Amino acid sequence: MSIGLGHYLVVSGLLFSLGLYVLITRKNAVAMLMGVELVLNAALLNMVAFSRLGRVGPDKLDGQVFALFGIVLAAAEAVVALALVLQLYRAFRSVDTTETTDLKG
Amino acid sequence: MNGSIVQVVLFYLLAALALTGACLVAFSRSIVHSAFALLGTFVGVAGLYALLAADLVAIVQVMVYVGGVLILILFAVMLTARVDEGKESNPTVGKIPGLLAMLAMAGLLVVTAVKAFGPRTVISEANPPSTVSPIGNLLLSKYVLPFEAISVLLLAVLLGAVTIASGRMRKGAGGKQEGEAPR
């Protein structure tokens, strides 16, 4: 009994589906951002798992470099999204995405 | 053999931590609870990275996600959500379609993963070498262009986030008088 690539892919698939559920069901913009983070984490876990256990061989580190770039992109996306959420809250006093529907409101 | 047992137990513990955190994020009624549950997910995934011998990625995950993104999200929650007003600060819409989509996606991904990679075993190195120095070499040789591009992106994000969050943009949003906007 040992841990193979399939185990990691199952974990990452479940993380992705939970993130998808959050994205579909939440109305709060900050909560939706948490869903995006879950999805991104699932994708990055896939990259690292393939880089270690896939056919490329364990000494190839390209997957890990991709994961590092992905982490940086996720952080950048979170910063801009939260700045937008703050402005949204300033304009509407709410971050509920079903209420904040006016353009140029 | 001993090491592999430890590996198996650690994998299941970390996977359980990550998935429990994700479930709490998905199903918790308070958005503050969701934000704190995200901590479990990030730490669990960082542990899985460490288990995959990706030590640098694990450390960066802890530093950037737990130390940065999570704190930012918590700040945003406290600045925007009126958590003290009611118990349910994190309402959901369309639970049934959401659950259906989640189950369909989970089933598809899990079945595909198990069918494609189920019986394959691990390449088990006794003591995998540190990845820090090879990744540093890769970043400055093969991936130097994305590396530089991402540094420019970070600068743009820094300026953009400050501009958006400071609210200066709204002055220029008047339309016609953009030309004589104050310097």
Protein model, in words:
The complex is a heterodimer of chains A (105) and B (183). With 105 residues, chain A is an all-alpha fold. The N and C termini of chain A lie far apart (60 Å). In chain A, 73% of the residues lie in helices and 0% in strands. Chain B is 70% helix and 0% strand. The radius of gyration of chain B is 22 Å and the shape is globular. Chain B folds into 2 domains: 1-92, NADH-ubiquinone/plastoquinone oxidoreductase chain 6, subunit NuoJ (Four Helix Bundle (Hemerythrin (Met), subunit A), Up-down Bundle); 130-169. The model of chain B is unreliable at 174-183 (pLDDT under 50). Chain B has 6 helices and no strands. With 183 residues, chain B is mainly α. At the A-B interface, helix 1, helix 2 and helix 3 of A face helix 1, helix 2, helix 3, helix 4 and helix 5 of B.
Keywords:
heterodimer, A: 105 residues, mainly alpha, Helix Hairpins, elongated, B: 183 residues, Four Helix Bundle (Hemerythrin (Met), subunit A), 2 domains, 6 helices, 0% strand, globular, disordered C terminus
CATH superfamily of the largest domain in chain B: NADH-ubiquinone/plastoquinone oxidoreductase chain 6, subunit NuoJ
Tell me the major beta sheet of chain B: none
Low-confidence stretches of chain B: 174-183
Sheet having the most strands of chain A: none
Q: What is the second-level CATH architecture of the largest domain in chain B?
A: Up-down Bundle
Judging from the principal axes of the Cα atoms, what is the shape of chain A?
elongated
What is the quaternary state of this protein?
A: heterodimer
The proportion of strand residues of chain A reads under 5%
Which CATH-level-2 architecture of chain A? Orthogonal Bundle
The chain-level structural class of chain B is: mainly alpha
Using the CA coordinates, give the radius of gyration of chain B.
22 Å
CATH domain fold name of chain A: Helix Hairpins
Reconstruct the topology from this structure.
The complex is a heterodimer of chains A (105) and B (183).
Chain A: H1 5-25, H2 29-53, H3 62-92
Helix pairs in contact in A: 1-2, 2-3
Chain B: H1 2-27, H2 31-51, H3 55-80, H4 95-117, H5 132-140, H6 144-166
